[in-house]
């Protein structure tokens, strides 16, 4: 009889004890916040007791993975203070002694280790499944050997160099061709250089050197 | 035998018009005019702007083209031909253009830097980089915004003040080298190469602007910006600053006084109809300003709406998290309503929110008016990073900035090279290609000073003081010279000689009467403003605060500002004095010779 009464008390007391362990702002607990509509929009699933059980199972898995020796179970993860935001507090009890809580630091290490798995289990991300107090590690920046901008720069400056050299060489060749043309007929050079302009029309005549004023000042 | 080789010419008049358009339509149309529009009452600003165009802009533009086409020489030779004592006007123009060349290409270097960095999957100014131990973002970036961080830290690596010099930023130096090489490529063969390039630099920016216009007006929230811009606030017209800013904008936008227009026109055929071209180019320039401001304001509207909605989203999340309400109770539309509601029902919890609750105001977002490099590189890139396919829009935008900048650079460099190549002692010893190369190399080496860590502060100094005051003085002297010293009658005869018909009264009244008066008024205003302004200040980037702080220039920098102003303005009186002394020596020398022959 006494044993039966004690058993009943344990059944009633255990959850009450659990409630004492898990409360808002518990020293060894974490607040979890879930934003289903932000993450999934139309495909958001409903957050119900089954999902809560899934969360307990995932956390137990994370604890097992981190510690590797002890056997955690869903009963070791105690949840409380649920709100319609979908946020709640949880604490983790030790599998050997259900009144003893695992310290905050160890829980954090376990969560950090399996964060990616926990996120994927719920189809959420670091931003939509928040453990308040555990900051996600940001992705390391990708540092390529040559910065990409230098590659584009190299291409453009190469093209410009080629353009400048081509222009300079073409004008050099043009000058050489003109010089060769000149040595054949020395008269042409002076005739070609001057084009008379009259009323805006280019005249292609030859310059009549009879009227050049060679001697502006007649010598005395 | 005293004949020179025929002067190079544009292949056809269209090249000349496009060159002028390419020169006049520059970065100022994109980043200064929209700012002025916003500051001075939106649509109402168009009234003083267009009035100043008619009274000041078009007549002075016409005058410069006439001088260049008549004299067929660069600015130094042209002004010396008009009046030997005032050859200094041309020299002052060349000095001012030289200052402009030095710092203007740095903007093109920045555009190249941003363009090359747009070829990445995530734009580098979209997110803050992570810090060394991967726990969060770099502090300076957290305090400022990612776009500001990218501009001030990664692009400029700016120091805290103008006194703290640093090394040269290698990336910037490379981009500046590229910019100068491209300028050389465009001018290496003189107007023959420039004439072909301007077909592209004058027309392609319009294509990009149209594409951006279509993209801009289809963005969510752009209509807020356009509405904000065009709602006229007529009371601004009573403010004299509005009229002064309109006149200044017309004046600098058309690029008067630098000698570029004279240089361009000197390659024209003698009978080219520059009257029609002057009106066309001025109209095109002003309409481009208005068109560009529509684009700018639709982008502003998008950015302001985006920021406003992000602010509302943050407030919504804050309320949801603090009061633990279900996610779909508060939506973006009823955030404001819920704030009042929660304040009423849970006052203590509401006050515990304290400073974290932001006030979101669309008007305040639209009111943040920015101009200059801040607009082009910070505000615009912030808007671009939020667009879908942002890499494409980024590339297009920076190509447009480059074309606008390069087009203006062509005019600036030609304004320096044409007078130099007209000088006999230079044209005898080196070819045009060598001269062009030397000028580009010289400007590149001096321009490297702007790529140092404090380079941006020197850049701002040159931008604010290098060309503003001196130009007003130069153009004032130009107008007075042409109308009163050379004589409006002689000018009229020259124009009739070139065009075949006389100057009608509009040109005569404007050139001889209205424009000089307006210029003198502007000049007096600048002097009064400068005296009243006290010590000149600049915006220094403060690393700890993550924003710009107003700082005074140190004494040696103020002295340098004085030197900048004096060096171009003093050319005019000094050259006049030099010519006077030379003439007096020549006269007394001749007298001595005649005396000696008679006595002999």
Description:
The complex is a heterodimer of chains A (220) and B (600). Chain A is of the alpha+beta class and 220 residues long. Chain A is 48% helix and 13% strand. Chain A is built from 6 helices and 6 strands. In chain A, the strands form 2 sheets. In chain A, strands 2-3-1-4 form a 4-stranded antiparallel β-sheet, sandwiched between helices. In chain A, strand 2 and strand 3 form a beta hairpin. The N and C termini of chain A lie far apart (154 Å). The relative contact order of chain A is 0.10. Mean pLDDT of chain A is 79; it is low at 188-197. With 600 residues, chain B is mostly helical. In chain B, 72% of the residues lie in helices and 2% in strands. Chain B contains 27 helices and 2 strands. Chain B has helices at 13-24, 27-31, 33-39, 46-71, 75-82, 87-117, 139-143, 146-155, 170-187, 191-217, 222-230, 240-253, 260-266, 274-323, 335-345, 347-353, 362-367, 373-385, 390-422, 424-429, 432-447, 455-466, 468-485, 488-499, 505-532, 555-569, 571-599, and strands at 537-542, 547-552. In chain B, strands 1-2 form a two-stranded antiparallel ribbon. In chain B, a hairpin with a 4-residue loop joins strand 1 and strand 2 (547-552). Chain B starts with 12 loop residues before the first helix and ends with a helix. The mean pLDDT of chain B is 87. Chains A and B meet through helix 2 and helix 5 of A and helix 6 and helix 9 of B. Chain B: Na(+) binds at residues 24-25, 29, 253, 285, 404, 408. Chain B: One of its GO terms (cellular component) is apical plasma membrane.
């Amino acid at each position: 009889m006494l044993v039966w009464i004690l058993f009943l008390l344990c059944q009633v007391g255990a959850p009450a004890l659990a409630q004492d362990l898990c409360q808002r702002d518990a020293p060894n607990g974490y607040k979890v916040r879930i934003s289903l509509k932000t993450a999934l929009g139309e495909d958001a699933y409903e957050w119900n007791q089954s999902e809560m059980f899934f969360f307990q199972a995932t956390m137990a898995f994370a604890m097992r993975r981190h510690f590797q020796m002890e056997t955690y179970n869903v009963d070791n993860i105690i949840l409380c203070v649920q709100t319609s935001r979908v946020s709640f507090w949880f604490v983790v009890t030790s599998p050997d002694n259900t009144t003893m809580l695992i310290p905050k630091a160890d829980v954090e290490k376990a969560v950090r280790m399996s964060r990616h798995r926990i996120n994927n289990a719920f189809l959420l991300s670091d931003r939509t499944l928040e453990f308040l107090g555990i900051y996600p590690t940001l992705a390391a920046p990708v540092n390529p050997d040559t910065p990409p901008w230098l590659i584009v720069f190299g291409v453009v400056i190469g093209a410009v160099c080629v353009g400048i050299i081509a222009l300079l060489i073409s004008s050099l060749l043009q000058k050489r061709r003109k010089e060769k043309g000149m040595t054949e007929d020395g008269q042409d050079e002076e005739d070609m250089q001057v084009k008379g302009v009259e009323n805006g029309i280019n005249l292609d005549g030859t310059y009549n050197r009879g009227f050049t004023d060679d001697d502006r000042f007649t010598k005395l | 035998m005293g004949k020179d080789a025929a002067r190079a010419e544009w292949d056809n008049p269209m090249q000349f018009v496009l060159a002028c358009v390419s020169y006049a339509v520059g970065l100022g149309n994109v980043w200064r005019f929209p700012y002025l529009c916003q500051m001075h009452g939106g649509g109402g600003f168009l009234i003083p702007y267009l009035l100043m165009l008619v009274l000041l802009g078009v007549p002075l533009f016409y005058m410069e083209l006439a001088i260049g086409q008549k004299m067929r020489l660069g600015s130094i030779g042209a002004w010396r031909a008009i009046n030997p004592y005032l050859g200094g006007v041309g020299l002052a123009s060349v000095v001012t253009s030289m200052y402009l060349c030095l710092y203007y290409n740095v903007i093109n270097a920045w555009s190249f830097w941003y363009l090359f960095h747009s070829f990445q999957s995530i734009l580098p100014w979209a997110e803050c980089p992570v810090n060394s131990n991967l726990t969060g973002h770099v502090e300076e970036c957290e305090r400022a915004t990612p776009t500001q961080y990218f501009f001030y830290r990664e692009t400029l690596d700016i120091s805290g003040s103008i006194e703290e010099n640093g090394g040269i930023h290698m990336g910037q130096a490379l981009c500046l080298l590229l910019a100068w090489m491209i300028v050389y490529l465009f001018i290496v063969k003189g107007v023959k190469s420039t004439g072909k390039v301007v077909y592209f630099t004058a027309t392609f920016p319009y294509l990009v602007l149209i594409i951006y216009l279509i993209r801009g007006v289809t963005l969510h929230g752009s209509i807020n910006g356009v509405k904000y811009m065009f709602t006229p606030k007529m009371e601004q017209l009573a403010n004299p600053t509005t009229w002064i800013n309109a006149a200044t904008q017309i004046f600098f936008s058309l690029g008067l006084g630098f000698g570029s227009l004279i240089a361009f026109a000197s390659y024209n055929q003698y009978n080219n109809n520059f009257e029609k071209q002057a009106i066309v180019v001025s109209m095109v320039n002003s309409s481009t300003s208005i068109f560009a401001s529509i684009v700018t304001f639709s982008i502003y509207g998008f950015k302001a709406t985006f920021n406003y909605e992000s602010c509302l989203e943050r407030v919504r999340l804050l309320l949801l998290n603090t009061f633990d309400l279900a996610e779909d109770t508060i939506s973006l539309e009823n955030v404001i309503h819920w704030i009042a509601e929660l304040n009423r029902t849970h006052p203590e919890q509401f006050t515990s929110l304290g400073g974290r609750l932001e006030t979101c105001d669309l008007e305040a977002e639209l009111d943040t008016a920015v101009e200059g490099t801040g607009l082009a590189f910070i505000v615009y890139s912030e808007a671009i990073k939020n667009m879908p396919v942002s890499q494409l829009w980024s590339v297009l935008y920076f190509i447009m900035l480059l074309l606008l900048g390069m087009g203006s650079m062509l005019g600036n460099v030609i304004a320096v090279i044409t007078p130099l190549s007209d000088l006999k002692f230079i044209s005898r010893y080196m070819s045009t290609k060598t001269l062009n190369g030397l000028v580009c190399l010289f400007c590149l080496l001096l321009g490297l000073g702007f790529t140092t860590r404090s380079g941006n502060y020197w850049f701002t100094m040159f931008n604010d003081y290098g060309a503003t005051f001196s130009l007003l003085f130069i153009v004032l002297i130009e107008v007075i010279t042409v109308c009163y010293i050379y004589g409006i009658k002689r000018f009229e005869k020259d124009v009739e000689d070139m065009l075949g018909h006389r100057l009608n009264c509009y040109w005569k009244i404007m050139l001889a009467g209205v424009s000089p008066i307006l210029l003198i008024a502007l000049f007096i205003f600048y002097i009064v403003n400068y005296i009243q302004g006290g010590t000149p200040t600049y915006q220094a980037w403060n690393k700890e605060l993550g924003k710009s702080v107003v700082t005074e220039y140190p004494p040696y920098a103020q002295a340098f500002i004085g030197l900048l102003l004096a060096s171009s303005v003093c050319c005019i009186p000094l050259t006049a004095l030099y010519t006077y002394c030379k003439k007096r020596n020549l006269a007394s020398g001749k007298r001595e010779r005649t005396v000696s022959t008679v006595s002999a």
